[in-house]
């Protein structure tokens, strides 16, 4: 039985001569929160966009539950990349209903998702009047509507206040108990330390570290060491190539 919900094999994405993602091989165990760490511009979003079919890889392979990823697998993958896809003139229920009509999802599931993301009591309030945290939760609700096995979130705490961050953190921790594996990207070490079971650290498009979450007081040390090492190797390579 395959123990990983998603794997990448030497996955690469190039834009001209620039390798935004450079031969990355991830292994994401089932029923965990996998934290994808890296500074801004490290290649995290590019990597997640390939996993969700937004970008086509230049080279390499993506495996979903042991088989080669195809667009059919998107039915088992929910994602929130960048801005939540919210209609601000509609309520939370109406936003989910629009998506539900496209997917043939019954109203009972809409109510389940509203309960799951703690928006069941918003009634007819328009999404345009929601706080940033509520909009993020609604975006996650839209991603969860089709009962995905894998949820991919790109920098979900951006713009959230401390209360919103705490609510989101607790929600993410609950998902593995519901049978949902989560990949969450961030450049904020403290949030990943409180949320993830496994981590990968990306610097300059390269996976510098992958493994179980270290002790909290070692994460910063590990991150900085990995970032320094990959930056040094990248600089040396560029000098060798005469860039």
Automatic annotation (TrEMBL):
Belongs to the ABC transporter superfamily. It comes from Sporofaciens musculi. Signal peptide: none annotated. It holds the Pfam family ABC_tran. This is Lantibiotic protection ABC transporter ATP-binding subunit. GO terms for molecular function: ATP binding; ATP hydrolysis activity. Keywords: ATP-binding, Nucleotide-binding, Transport. SMART domains: AAA. InterPro entries: AAA+_ATPase, ABC_Gallidermin_ATP-bd, ABC_transporter-like_ATP-bd, P-loop_NTPase. SUPFAM superfamilies: P-loop containing nucleoside triphosphate hydrolases (SSF52540). The keyword Glycosyltransferase does not apply. Residues 6-229 form the ABC transporter domain.
